[in-house]
Structures are given as C-alpha cells and as structure tokens.
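Supplementary notes for students who missed Thursday's class. We covered one full example, reproduced here. Read the sequence, then the structure, then the short commentary at the end.
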Amino acid sequence: MSFRVNPYRFSNDPGAMIDFLQALGLRVRTTAADGRSWALLEGRAGAVAVHHSAGSTTGATPGQTQLVLLTESVDSAADKMRTNGVELTVWDESYGRQGGITDPFGGGIWVNEEMQDLHGYAEPTSPQEASDMTVCAVRYSPDFAADAAFFAPFGFSPRPAADEWWTPLVASATSGTIGLHKPSGEPITAPAKENPVGENPVVHLAFETATPLEQVRDRLTAAGYQAALVQDEFLTQVTVVDPDGCEVQVHRVR
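Structure (token representation):
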C-alpha cells in the first residue's frame, strides 16, 4: 500500500486552473463530465486535484490548497496504518470510501482512493506526453520533527537535502513531495465547516523539475502566463501567478 501527495486546490474558476496546470506540465488523469468543474492532474510524481470552491463541503475559500493523500484503497490503508499504531477515520462518500486523520497541529488530512469506477467522470481519449513535474505541497511546519514522525507511517521520510529551513519528505519515486518549510507567520490550518477530522490543512502549491527552468518559463509565457526566472540567496526558481491569484514556484530538484 503506497501513498501519493494529492493537494486539492479550491478555485472560483476551476476550468482556468485546469488549463494553467496543463500549461505548467501536468497531465489530466480524470475530469468531471463537463471537463471543466473538477479534474485530477498528474505529474511525474504526485497529483493535483482542482475543485470548485463553491462546492466545498469543508468551507474552503477560493485559492485555498489543502493537503490530501491518495492511495489505492482506503480500507487497506486503514488496516496498514493500524499495524503501525495509527488509526484512520474511514467513512463512505458518494464515489467510494474516504479516510482522514488529524495531524499534530489540528489539521484534518484526508486520504482519498484512486478512482476505479468513473461513475460519469471522464478520462482523456488521446495519449498525453509524460509530465516533467513533481508536485510539492509546501507545509509551513512549526515542528519538523513532529511532522516527520507523523508522516513516517505513510512511508514519507526526509531527503538528504533536509535542513532547519527546508525538509522535503518523500515516500517513493512517484509519491510527490511534502515540503516542510520554516514558517514566518503562514498558517498551517484554516477553519473548516465540515471536516470530520480537524481544520482544513492548508499548504502552498509548488513544483520541482529536472527540466531547465528557462524552458519552464518559456512554455508558460507561450501559453499566456507572466512567468519569471528569479534568483535569491537560496535558489533559482520560476515564479508565476495562477488564475486564483496565488504565486506558484517551480524549482529544480535538489
């Protein structure tokens, strides 16, 4: 049983956000029947789901991104977690089973299942190029050690690049990254309306790639987005404002 990072972006204009993520380099895996109101897009590692903020049962605000994990079977995941001394709350939802767990800071992280039956959803009918993007959910963590211990039963462990400012947690070559970032006032949770396991666990959406950053900037610019190559004392990255008005960063895999 494996887990992937699958942050959920809640958007006022999910169609525009889906287009943006495709221009960035993600590939559509599944969409709502209309192709515009909901989609799951995959990177080389990890995935991003886009959901209309108006339909959020947790009360997510436009532009909010929540930390979600994706696995093959929630019930199997719950059994595995139980052997590790961790209890997942499991419940039925419209299209299968769903799980959740409260993190060390009161955030209710959901665990979703890979969709096995489309139930009226759609998949692309033509082949797509492979993605060169790794999804990174940046979590402004007040306690790296507590978070590392919390995510360890899910298979995530620190990469060698870890330090006191930035610690990437990775479970596998396809898991995507939970990036623990030293906070400077950024929230780690937001009030939730109907989250059965805690508050909304907010993260910042970012990406890693082995592609030269100049190429990433140029393809975003060609698609009509204002992307820039920015260098500071720590790293060089591409920055671009997404359709929800949130800044997205892309940096080289470290």
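Commentary. The CA atoms of residues 32 and 121 lie 5 Å apart. The radius of gyration is 17 Å. If anything here is unclear, bring it to office hours.
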